[in-house]
Amino acid sequence: MDQVPLVGREENDLFKRFISQYDGPAYVRRARRVEDAFRALVDHCEEKRRTMLEIARVRLGMLRALAGDWDTLSGVVMDAPDLKVLRRLEAALEPALRIPPPPTRSQRILRRALCELIESLERFNRRWGQFLDALDLRPINELRDGYNRYYVLEKEFAVRSARVARHGFVPLAPLTAAALFELLPLLPVPRSR
Is residue 76 a contact partner of residue 111, using CB atoms and an 8 Å limit? Predict the structure, then answer.
């Protein structure tokens, strides 16, 4: 039996391919590219941050397990705000040890564990700052510049109204390391007595 071609199938496939490649007006695609690039950058930074925090997370979990309770460290840390820093770090980093050590009352052991945590946090902050400062933000800033230049023009072409095209448009500032530091900041470091 001969295959009978379906009428319009080829044109329908061509239309679907066109739609899948150009799934919206140019201004929508431009905004998506900027948003996707920013999201990809933040995801990359968050993954790198997670990796860089592994040792600090373990050291924080170790200190928490050895102390049993943060208030036990009141004689080891400088003052009460440092206990708050430790609580905030625990909430942010959510340390979990596979085999936690038993709690101790030894000030020497607690002080050593705290000093190891402080060293890890300072090392993380130093490395994190270097990582963010070394990021090449030129590609994402070129996308933002293109968005600022052409978004309104492309939208005006699509909606056929300059007033509607300009409504709600906010130009994007160039992305800087400082903006990334605000989004993914350095960690507070408690002080030891």
Answer: yes
Residue pair 18/97 in contact by the 8 Å Cβ criterion: no
* Residue 1 pLDDT grade (very low, low, confident, very high; cuts 50, 70, 90): very low
pTM score over 0.90: no
Res 6 pLDDT > 60: no
pLDDT in tens, 145-169: 999 999 999 989 888 888 998 999 9
User: Do 61 and 100 contact (CB within 8 A), yes or no?
Assistant: yes
Domain ranges of the chain: 26-183
Q: Tokens 């050291």 label which residue?
A: 59
Alpha-carbon gap, residue 83 to 64, rounded angstroms: 11
